[in-house]
Specification:
five-stranded antiparallel beta sheet; alpha+beta; globular
């Protein structure tokens, strides 16, 4: 059994009782209650597993790490998740030119001064334009005359300010978010002369051979400012004034840490502290570092979803378009286990999010549905995500999703594949271990292919290719000796490390949906939020409908599970469930396909009855296990905003299902109209009984009949309110 790992910053809620992690061992986990000081409760790992499978479990990672954590209802996720598309694109553009300045400064091309940055602005603009074009045209084929999404650089002073903010924040993209909704930032500048003098004073902190504490450097800076002001007054010049203590601290923290260590402790200490091997960082725990990349598969396949190619005549088989698919893969570097695998038409933001969803999910049901002999349970909460800089994983929404899931995005330099050696080695293993046995292989180059006719031998479709690759990963790769693990197999190393160091807890369904779901906008109605014929509501949406004048809300929908959605209300996220409560585990693609069959019979009916809905849900769940693997191949029209909006407008426009009935009872205090007036018991024969007025049981209605409401009072007894 996989044992989760918690930290002191995590918030756990069980049946609305909030806990903070205290400690854990190999047998149990201790949680500290927040409402009673010092109260500790113990939970075994079996109990936690049972709670996680129910809806009484809630987990918020790094909740207490954020100093701005609020006690209000709802969750505050990453700041990037709530930004508008235009603002998010601007923040990403700022990070791009900050990265370019950092690379040029590291290479010694420029210095972090305006006079050094200004002559290099054309070079910076060209490099930023190339990165912006590559990032925003992912999966697109540019043609002559196409408009390129390039932006103009700000002035050199603004670039340096953004760079220093980005650097001081540990190279976090959130430091580049505009301070106001208009994108304008109100800053108070220090004049250039004072800034230069302050820089010289702060440089005393990195004196050679000295390890001065920060307090001594601050005191030294104040003394130098006092001496300079006295000298200027004696000469009749304008004094410099002074600076605050916090300003000096920020300037010390902004100094190059490598240079400070080099000056204070020597070259060897600096090299030992900041150097890294060409193979990347060494990881010790599962899910500590995940490498993600995509690979243009060396196999020509049929670009169609075919169930049996042997039944298709040869002349028709030759007319089916053929091409190469992309294989998107994620690997855990500590154990070399594959955490996700997808087949894609081209790298895109949607495919990147779906792959990230596999990383944080148990994939045993996929392996079981495809007939694998082994399970695929490797998953957990993310930490560091390493990708290259020119792939589908550089989109704005992917960056925001990683930040929302409490991960860190690591963009490695282009052309240095040794920094992503684990994922590159997996693709190499596919090339040597499975691709040579497949028909239609193209080889990695023309010399490798020779005179082999790839198109003539192409007979595999997307389902076949996915089936082969997942079988190879689950049944062969995970249990084959790995040289990088000292002869151990990836599955064995995963089991060993999970027992020693545990695995970061994966996000719950709400957080996963909010981070990785498809963004939508819907108008709040009386019944709730309508999505593809279903209405979603919660207590928060009901209150918001009464109070707001503009009920258009942002929504996140998981296309693989449409039982609930995430709704943003006043910058807080809440869960809204389907009013019928019967769509848990049902995918939007399956719901769409079944609704198309229903409309063939009831094409003129706008409000379909509940019995028809129950039959549709039963049919979907009967074949759910057969459709799991189809979610991993291209062809879905419901994994993006435009596709879902098109399905709603074309297939579900003007059609929905009748709401659940509410039982109306007039039985004393429980009734809505007060206490019923009953006849004197002494005057009523014992055989007569008072009958409550209720809506007829839905199971007694036929498929095409409406609900049969009682026309009048019962003959055996009735209440005054019945009239």
């Amino acid at each position: 059994m996989q044992k989760p790992r918690f930290t002191r910053f995590d918030l756990i809620a069980i049946d609305d009782q909030e806990y903070r992690f205290h400690s854990q061992n190999h047998d149990s986990v201790l949680f500290e209650r927040l409402d009673v000081s010092g109260a500790i409760e113990s939970f075994s790992y079996d109990q936690i597993l049972t709670l996680k499978s129910s809806r009484s479990w809630s987990y918020q990672r790094d909740y207490f790490r954020n100093p701005n954590t609020s006690s209000e209802a709802g969750r505050t996720l990453s700041r990037l998740a709530s930004l508008k598309t235009s603002v998010l694109a601007k923040v990403t553009f700022r990070e791009n030119y900050c990265q370019v300045v950092r690379e040029l400064h590291s290479a010694g091309v420029l210095k972090l001064r305006e006079d050094s940055l200004e002559p290099n602005r054309p070079m910076i603009q060209i490099e930023v334009n190339e990165r912006e074009t590559a990032r925003q045209t992912i999966g697109k084929k540019l043609r002559g005359g196409d408009e390129l999404p390039n932006r103009k650089l700000p002035c050199s002073r603004t670039i340096l300010e953004h760079y220093r903010e980005w650097r001081d924040a540990g190279y976090s993209i959130e430091a580049l978010i505009p301070k106001t909704s208009t994108g304008k930032v109100d800053r108070k500048y220090i004049d250039i002369e004072k800034e230069e003098f302050l820089r010289k004073c702060v440089a005393h902190h990195a004196s050679a051979g000295k390890r001065l504490p920060m307090a001594r450097t601050i005191e030294h800076t104040f003394e130098k400012f006092d001496e300079e002001n006295e000298r200027r007054e004696s000469l009749g010049l304008r004094p410099l004034g002074t600076v605050s203590r916090s300003t000096i601290v920020r300037r010390i923290q902004a100094m190059d840490p490598f240079y400070v260590t080099f000056q204070r402790e020597g070259a060897e200490a600096a090299r030992r502290q900041f150097s890294s091997s060409s193979g990347g960082l060494q990881t010790l725990a599962p899910m500590e570092r995940i490498e993600i990349d995509d690979w243009y598969c060396d196999v020509r396949s049929l670009l169609a979803d075919l169930s049996m190619t042997t039944a298709i005549p040869a002349n028709l088989l030759e007319q089916i378009p053929k091409g190469n698919r992309w294989v998107c893969c994620a690997i855990d570097t500590a154990t070399r286990c594959i955490l996700g695998l997808r087949i894609a038409k081209a790298p895109s933001a949607a495919e990147a999010l779906r792959l990230l969803s596999m990383v944080v999910s148990d994939k045993s049901d996929i392996a079981r549905q495809l007939g694998c002999e082994k399970n695929w349970p490797q998953h957990g909460g993310i930490c560091d995500i390493a990708t290259d800089s020119h792939s589908g994983f550089q989109s704005d929404v992917f960056r925001a999703a990683i930040s929302t899931l409490h991960g860190t995005k690591l963009t490695l330099p282009l052309g240095k594949s040794e920094l992503r050696s684990s994922i590159e080695r997996v693709f190499g293993s596919m090339v040597t271990g499975v691709i040579p046995f497949l028909p239609g292989r193209t080889g990695s180059n023309p010399q490798d292919r020779g005179d082999y006719d790839s198109d003539k031998h192409a007979v595999l479709d997307d389902n076949d290719l996915l089936y082969i690759l997942i079988h190879w990963v689950v049944d062969h790769y995970h249990y084959a000796p790995h040289r990088g693990l000292g002869g151990d197999c990836p599955a064995g190393r995963w089991e060993k490390l999970t027992k020693e160091r545990f695995v970061p807890e994966c996000p719950d369904a709400f957080e996963k949906r909010t981070a990785l779901g498809v963004p939508l906008e819907r108008t709040l109605q009386k019944r709730g939020l309508e999505i593809c014929g279903n209405f979603y509501r919660s207590d928060e949406t009901v209150c918001h409908f009464k109070e707001t004048l503009s009920p258009t809300l942002n929504i996140r929908l998981d296309p693989d599970d449409i039982g609930a959605v995430s709704v943003e209300i006043n910058n807080r996220w809440f869960e809204a469930r389907c009013e019928h409560g019967d769509l848990d585990g049902v995918s939007l693609e399956e719901w769409k396909a079944e609704h198309e069959l229903i409309l063939q019979r009831y094409k003129d009916v706008e409000l379909l009855n509940r019995k028809t809905r129950r039959s549709a849900i039963a049919a979907i769940k009967a074949r759910c296990d057969q459709a799991i693997a189809k979610r991993l191949i291209p062809g879905s029209t419901t994994d993006n905003t435009a596709g879902i909006d098109a399905v709603q407008n074309q297939l579900f426009h003007g059609r929905s299902y009748e709401p659940l009935p509410e039982t109306v009872s007039f039985n004393g205090a429980g009734g809505p109209f007060g206490t019923p007036i009953s006849p004197d018991p002494s005057t009523v024969p014992a055989a007569e009984q008072t009958t409550e007025l209720t809506i007829e049981d839905e199971s007694k209605t036929s498929e095409d009949d409406a609900i049969d409401w009682p026309d009048g009072p019962s003959s055996s007894g009735w209440n005054l309110e019945d009239e």
